[in-house]
Design a protein that fits this description.
This protein is an alpha/beta fold. It is built from 9 helices and 7 strands; from the N terminus they run E-H-E-H-E-H-E-H-E-H-E-H-H-H-H-E. It has a 7-stranded mixed sheet with strand order 3-2-1-4-5-7-6, sandwiched between helices. The chain is globular.
Length: 256
């Protein structure tokens, strides 16, 4: 049995990008650890209790069979053209010193004796600045910790374009067009692992549903969440029942 650490940018990314894979790994008996760079908050963190989004993350993680959840200590950098000043209690992740953040993550990799790190492709998937930073920090942390196996979560560009077109037909209000994805995610030729996780679609959907603050918000992403969790399970599995990775391990080793 192996320990696998999945490094994500925000609470909810663990379910969207790797939820089926994490559920599968846990089902197969591996120890699964999720580390999030940010707590999903753009303002100061609450002083008396854990942030609501971290609490939701722990609920989501439990549904997926995750053994441990860690917040790396940064604030959400937000999206859009403006990057706001740091909140008074911590830095926004995109402004974090890459070496310092990588050492924080490497410490967890060493403590867990992790055999594998999952993080993001160089484009950060769809291009969010915190996701790109996850790629940079994850790559460096794996070097520092000498983690033997490193896989980058992604989606083939052509598949992403088809999924966006299908989502628009289902009236799921994504913020991108299919054409905008032509330079994001990864070309199919880079993909080394394509996992069918439809068996774990119900768990993945339930994990998404645990992120209540996202579902109950007023933005476009909240509308997407509401649509996703209300889909019939077979249709949800059709949309999100496959997950893709690029193996960038220094030396390829047998998959756990």
């Amino acid at each position: 049995m192996a320990t696998v650490l999945a490094f994500h940018a925000h609470p909810d990314d663990e379910a969207l990008l790797t939820g089926g894979t994490l559920a599968r790994l846990a089902h197969e008996g591996h120890r699964v650890v999720v580390v999030v760079a940010t707590d999903g908050l753009v303002d100061a963190a609450p002083t008396q209790a854990e942030s609501p989004r971290l609490h939701e993350l722990r609920t989501s993680a439990a549904l997926l069979g995750v053994d441990r959840v860690v917040h790396l200590g940064y604030a959400d950098s937000g999206h859009g053209p403006l990057l706001y000043p740091d909140p008074p209690d911590r830095a926004r992740f995109v402004r974090a010193d890459t070496e310092e953040a990588a050492e924080r993550l490497a410490t967890i990799l060493r403590d867990e004796d992790a055999s594998m790190l999952l993080h993001y492709d160089p484009h950060g998937g769809y291009g969010h600045r915190d996701h790109i930073k996850v790629h940079q920090v994850g790559r460096r942390a794996a070097e520092l910790a000498k983690t033997p196996r490193v896989l980058e979560a992604t989606v083939p560009r052509d598949t992403a374009e088809r999924l966006v077109r299908l989502a628009h037909r289902l009236r799921i209000p994504l913020r991108f067009t299919a054409e905008e994805l032509s330079t994001r995610f990864s070309p199919r030729s880079d993909i080394t692992h394509r996992l069918d996780v439809r068996r774990y679609a119900r768990q993945k959907q339930a994990a998404l549903a645990a992120h209540r603050s996202q579902i109950n918000g007023t933005g476009r992403s909240s509308a997407v969440f509401r649509k996703m969790i209300r889909l019939p399970s077979p249709l949800f599995g059709l949309l999100l029942g496959r997950e893709w990775f690029i193996d960038v391990s220094p030396v390829r080793s047998p998959q756990p």
